[in-house]
Write the structure tokens for this entry.
Amino acid sequence: MQYLGEMISIGVAFSWTATALLSEMGSKRMGNVTLNFTRMAITLIFSAILFWVVTGSPLPAKASNEAYMWMVLSGLVGYVIGDFCLFQCYIIIGSKFGQLFMTLAPITAAFMAWVTLGQEIKPMGLVAMAVTLTGIAVTVLGRGDNHHSLSLKLPLNGVLFAIGAAVCQGVGLVLSKIGMDHYEASMATPCQQEWILPFYANVFRCIAGILGFAILLHFREGFGSLRRNITDRTSITVATLTTIFGPFVGVGCSLLAVQHTSAGIASTLMALTPIIIILPAWWLFKQPITLKSVVGAIISVAGVSLFFLL
């Protein structure tokens, strides 16, 4: 089907918008690590059901140890470190600003692909990076008290968590791509349903995620927080919806999109979330819509487009 990858990518952008909004609600209610641990567990359950319905077995297809290693590494970087930073920034600066900083993720992915896969970065890439950073700066910087200097209008720790999340997501995406290539090459028999391969691969990312978050949960919030929240109807509903739109449908479809279109086009369309989220963030969290925030988001997404499409 023509433009299948592009349509999936746009759907992922809306899915990640829903995830960001739900994650902000869930993180403030349940706690960062408790929410992440819960959604990793729910993702594994959903995945097992999907595999059982499609293939008759709840387990993913076997692959090589090398494929497992890459996918686990991707899970540690993208889920454990990346999502911890992302959800923490949601608590501090909100999902609207968090998603704005996530426009740095495709650029990070491109540089990671250049380092690990030898993919070329065109000179326009540096221009695109400057445009993206300009868009972010327009939104988060303002005049200082003396009106002669610029100052950061957001908490510094929230900004650092957001940047860390973007870097980890970009690196994690490339590690996933490497892992899926090894996964497909090492399968004993070709996968009859090609679309399910990203969901197979995502299981091992989630296993790494649930182990990593279990350790963090032990040291940060304690398992008592987990027990309280899984018996709370509102908390478990938010966690389930976050899982559906995030690590299950969102991440699985993002990997699927890369299979059906170029990584650049997919990343560009998936980066539309900072624009899509502006209106619902105002409606749900009363975050004001300002000209600076709209212009900054548009400039940042334009920068991502320049990076990949020119």
